[in-house]
Design a protein that fits this description.
2 strands; mainly alpha; two-stranded antiparallel sheet
C-alpha cells in the first residue's frame, strides 16, 4: 500500500492545499513584516525622544542640578537609562509580548519622571498627529473607550512618536487578527507564529 495518492483528483486536492498553505503563509509573513517595519519607525521616534531628554539632562546647568534636590533629576536619569536598555532589548524581538509589556511600563515611568521634572513642558498629540493640548486628557475619554491607546505627553514637542506608536499598534492589530482567523490559524500554529503586543 502506497502513501502517495494514485488518482488525479487526489493530486489536484494536494496541490490546491499546498498552494493555499503557501498563500496563507505569505500573507502572514507580509503582515509580520509590516509590524516589524512599523516597529522600526517607532524605535527611531523613541530614540529621538530619548536623545531629547538626555540632551536636556546634559544641558542642565550644574548650579541648578546642585541646588535642586537629586530626588527630581535622579528618577529621570534612571528612567531614561531603563527605557534605553529595554528599547535595545526590544529591538532584538519586537514581536515578543513580554518585552513589549516591559517597554510600555518603562515608557510610562519615563514619561511620569519627565512630567515631574518639567510639569509645564507637556505637549500631547492625538494618534493622527493633531495637537490635543491645552484640552486636558481624562482617563476613560472617548479614545480610551474605542480601544485606542490614550495619547502620551511626549517630552519633545513632536507628533512623530505618537504617529509611529499608532501605526505600530494598528499593524499589530491587523497581524493578530490575521493569525486568529480560522484557516490562517492552522498555518500560524504550524509555523509557530505568535501574537504580538501593542505599545499602550
Amino acid at each position: 500500500m502506497s502513501v502517495l495518492p494514485e488518482s488525479l483528483v487526489s493530486w489536484i486536492a494536494v496541490a490546491v492545499l499546498l498552494f493555499w498553505f503557501v498563500g496563507a503563509y505569505n500573507r502572514l509573513v507580509r503582515l509580520r513584516a509590516t509590524v516589524l517595519q512599523a516597529y522600526g519607525a517607532l524605535d527611531a521616534a523613541l530614540s529621538k525622544q530619548l536623545d531629547f531628554v538626555q540632551a536636556s539632562i546634559a544641558a542642565a546647568p550644574v548650579e541648578a542640578v546642585l541646588n535642586e534636590s537629586l530626588s527630581s533629576i535622579a528618577p529621570l536619569q534612571a528612567a531614561t537609562t531603563q527605557l534605553s536598555t529595554l528599547l535595545g532589548a526590544t529591538r532584538l524581538h519586537p514581536l515578543d509580548a513580554g518585552g513589549m509589556a516591559a517597554l510600555a511600563t518603562a515608557l510610562q515611568v519615563w514619561i511620569g519622571a519627565w512630567r515631574r521634572q518639567h510639569p509645564d513642558d507637556v505637549t500631547v498629540f492625538d494618534a493622527d498627529g493633531t495637537l490635543s493640548r491645552p484640552a486636558p486628557l481624562v482617563a476613560g475619554s472617548a479614545g480610551a473607550l474605542s480601544g485606542a491607546a490614550e495619547p502620551i505627553a511626549w517630552p519633545e514637542p513632536s507628533a512623530a512618536a505618537e504617529i509611529a506608536r499608532n501605526q505600530f499598534n494598528l499593524a499589530v492589530a491587523q497581524y493578530n487578527a490575521a493569525i486568529a482567523q480560522f484557516p490562517a490559524l492552522l498555518v500560524a500554529w504550524a509555523v509557530r507564529l505568535r501574537a504580538a503586543a501593542p505599545l499602550r
